[in-house]
Amino acid sequence: MSSRIAYMLDINGRRRIVDVEGTTPLLWVMTEEPGLSCMPFACSAGLCGACTIEVDGVTVRACSFPVEEAVGRRIVSPGGLNETYRVDGQG
Q1: Which strand (E) or helix (H) includes residue 37?
Q2: Which fold has domain 9-81?
Q3: Which residues in the chain show pLDDT less than 50?
Q4: Cβ–Cβ under 8 Å, residues 36 and 12
């Protein structure tokens, strides 16, 4: 069982400190962080690919990637790849 602690994450080249349980899906963190509002909620089961991000250059589904596994790794959201990227209806 993980506990709620502060984790330092590197998201789109910026360090962010989040206070969550380690098993919290990275998608939840990325939708709550200012400047990352382009992250969509869709199936929340890793099936549709709407929440695809890069972690150390490898594509993963943010809805099924725990925060505790993201520590010390380079995370890039779609908006971090292209500053003008927006999901339909957002931005």
Answers
A1: none
A2: Ubiquitin-like (UB roll) (3.10.20)
A3: 83-91
A4: yes
